[in-house]
Amino acid sequence: MTSSTLAPSDQMIAVHNHGHVHLEDSMGSDLHIVNNARVSFDQESEEFTAKERGLLNFLMRERHGSPWESVVFRFDVKVPIFVMREWARHRISSTNEQSGRYSVMPDHFYVPEREYIREQVGKPGSYSFEPITDPAVVDSTIELIEQTQRAAFDAYHQMLEQGVAKELARTVLPVGMYSRMKWTVNLRALFNFLSLRNDVHAQREIRDYAVAVEELAKQVVPVAFEVFEENGRVCP
Ligand SMILES: Cc1cc2nc3c(=O)[nH]c(=O)nc-3n(C[C@H](O)[C@H](O)[C@H](O)COP(=O)(O)OP(=O)(O)OC[C@H]3O[C@@H](n4cnc5c(N)ncnc54)[C@H](O)[C@@H]3O)c2cc1C
Fold it and tell me: CA 83 to CA 21: how far, in whole Å?
């Protein structure tokens, strides 16, 4: 893959207390997508003009999917395990994750901000999530989340000190702990991810990551993201 033209400082976005999304590499451009489509007619565009923009809009509107696959991104992401589990459902992508068998997991776990403490209201199919306004409940929730995860990490380290294998000691670690992965995804599959995860129905935590992913990816293919938006954020 060719290196992204983004400045290093523009490629990393911090998320929550310990997470991040880092665009490490990308291949392709708006013009690549156009030329992948133009090969059908044995033609090629040298520059990106209003005509090329019109073609991108046509491809998106008519859901011609494969030209979008010519753009590829590689992200380094650090997310809590419960977010990783949702992320991993996106099979049309490649992942390599930090191993709890071979490395000591850092004492990093997710503790939500106060405004993230919420309740679930409604019934299946039409849930909504409303902030809890009672400050005592907010305080005790944050305290429980923090204390419980801290205790789990204390037990983990105690076992490691006693010589227990990392692969076994990790069984006590919580789903709020952070892990890192490399995520390689093409633009078509990324649009599918974003249509589902940067959406009001997605859990707020993964949505925050999806917002960061979108912000970074759109700097590589800005027009592709414009036509994605203009056509209702439907994956082509
Ligand atoms: C709000 C929300 C709630 C969810 N709740 C649950 C839940 O309760 N339980 C749960 O298990 N999952 C749940 N999911 C996960 C969801 O069902 C999908 O697995 C996930 O969003 C990945 O989407 P995808 O399959 O389109 O993506 P990818 O796996 O990246 O696939 C991309 C596209 O490739 C095609 N494709 C990939 N694999 C196949 C295949 N085997 N056969 C045919 N076509 C294929 C499809 O067109 C698919 O859309 C939820 C997702 C969201 C966004």
Answer: 13
